[in-house]
From TrEMBL:
Limits of the HTH gntR-type domain: 10-78
Entries under CDD domains matching the protein: WHTH_GntR
Organism in which the protein naturally occurs: Longilinea arvoryzae
An MF annotation (GO) of this entry: DNA binding
Lineage per the UniProt record: Bacteria, Bacillati, Chloroflexota, Anaerolineae, Anaerolineales
Stated name of the protein: Transcriptional regulator
Keyword tags: DNA-binding, Transcription, Transcription regulation
Pfam families linked: GntR (PF00392), UTRA (PF07702)
Any GO BP: negative regulation of DNA-templated transcription
The UniProt record lists the keyword DNA-binding: yes
Length: 248
């Protein structure tokens, strides 16, 4: 039995979730198998009921376990294992790593422009206000994967701002400017046909079907937008969603 490390800063519920996740991924808890009960896990690992429930909730959130209320918790097999949840976000390089690719990226320039209408509305800017647009292309195993256009209000940036957009770390740049962690994004997901320009970046035929994520990064404590991004995903990139039926 794998033991918990009680001398680390990693929360016990997270350690337990990782132990159970490893058992599921390795096949030691096969798909569709009922997990040990809360009481069994409490006794085996000397944990409180609340800690065990937090661990199970994390496994449910990450797509490794489903709950059949009144019956118990069951493992989800690899065929349903969600590699990237569409309701979470990470930086693009980390996303590509999580789906099993080796990520790289290339900067294609930084432009100061009058905010396009959709950007102006998302960031609540006035007419003719300037934004800085960082254009990058992310590669998965040296193949074009994601074209990103990241926008920031010009008034938030100093005169000597990093014109690379801090490399891959647009989210961290937002956090540096605003002095707080970015935890939420409001995302519109749209199927579209690649324009000539986008097709050239992604090495596609113009008119190819792609996914566009238009994302507004939010500070919920102040109810204000922090930044806006348009992310164009190559059609080879797939998202999987585990959907739960609501009770009728």
């Amino acid at each position: 039995m794998i033991n918990l490390n009680r001398d680390t800063v990693v929360p016990l519920y997270h350690q337990l979730s990782e132990i159970l996740k490893e058992l599921i991924q390795s096949g030691q808890i096969p798909a569709g198998t009922k997990l040990p009960s809360e009481r069994e896990l409490m006794d085996r690992y000397h944990l409180s009921r609340n800690t065990v429930r937090q661990a199970i909730d994390l496994l449910v959130h990450d797509g490794f376990v489903y709950q059949d209320h009144g019956k118990g918790n069951y493992s989800i097999g690899p065929f349903l294992n969600i590699q990237y949840r569409i309701d979470t976000f990470v930086e693009h390089s980390e996303f590509l790593r999580r789906v099993g690719s080796t990520p790289t990226y290339k900067n294609f320039g930084t432009d100061e422009i009058v905010a396009p209408e959709e950007v102006r509305k998302a960031l609540r800017l006035g007419e003719n206000e300037l934004v800085v647009c960082f254009t990058k292309l992310f590669f998965a195993n040296n193949e074009p994967a994601i074209l990103t256009l990241d926008y920031l209000p010009r008034k938030l940036l100093g005169d000597n701002y990093d014109r690379t957009g801090s490399g891959d770390a647009y989210i961290r740049l937002l956090e540096e400017i605003n002095g707080r962690m970015v935890k939420f994004t409001l995302s519109d997901i749209v199927a579209m046909n690649a324009t000539q320009e986008i097709a050239e970046y992604l090495n596609l035929t113009p008119g190819s079907s792609i996914l566009l994520f238009q994302e507004t990064f939010l500070d919920p404590s102040k109810n204000v937008p922090l930044g806006f991004a348009s992310n164009y995903y190559h059609p080879n990139i797939h998202f999987r969603i585990l959907r739960h039926r609501l009770n009728p």
